[in-house]
User: Fold this.
Amino acid sequence: MSVALTLAGVLLAVAALLLAPSLLIRGLLAPLNPAVVFCGPGRQKRLALSIDDGPSGPGSQALLELLEQLAVPATFFLIGSHLERDPAFPRLALEQGHDLGNHLWRDACAAKLAEGPFWHELQATERLIERAAAPESLSWRWFRPGQGWFHGAMLQRLASRRYQLVLGSIFPWDTFRPPLGFVRWFVRINAHPGGILVLHDTPALNSRTRESLSWIVPELRRRGYRFVPLAELLDPAPAASSAAASRASGR
Assistant:
């Protein structure tokens, strides 16, 4: 009996991790790692969209067109070596009001890089994206490690360059290509005030990302959520200003 109960407990824990991880992220991982951004503060129904691994090629242009139609800002965490697929993407994304983050040079586990190779990939990606973005200006602020793994030494390196390491709190396992119905359901049950949604722009996933967003954005807006830039999501000032305005007006 005890073995059966233990197994049931393990299965429940695994199910909770796979299906509703935003609770674990907000309740455990974020407090344990205050230098890492998992989600935004406050109780306002605001979300930030982040898209990894681009650009993917022609699909990235279609993704920009969709985001313009939906009026949704995004932060694109770009991989340096992927710019050959669409060299114009950084400039076009910035022109449309999106933000860019550094996802290093290769789609690989960043935590395995020694200090020298890490700096090389970080700076090579910076230089290439900056050249591609011209004449648009770019101030580097956001970093996301490949495969999501990080360590203390990485955080110290990033702090010296004024980067913030950003992960997320709503990751619908899209890289495993589950049914799109699962992606929609997962985002619906894991959405929360201050959430950071993570999707992907690769040749294999771009069309799925566009199809998912076409449903996710209207659905979450019906539930009262607003999509805002990552910088706005992480800034408590708008919420504080709104509360002060409400007090001043007597509401």
Remarks:
- The CA atoms of residues 87 and 107 lie 17 Å apart.
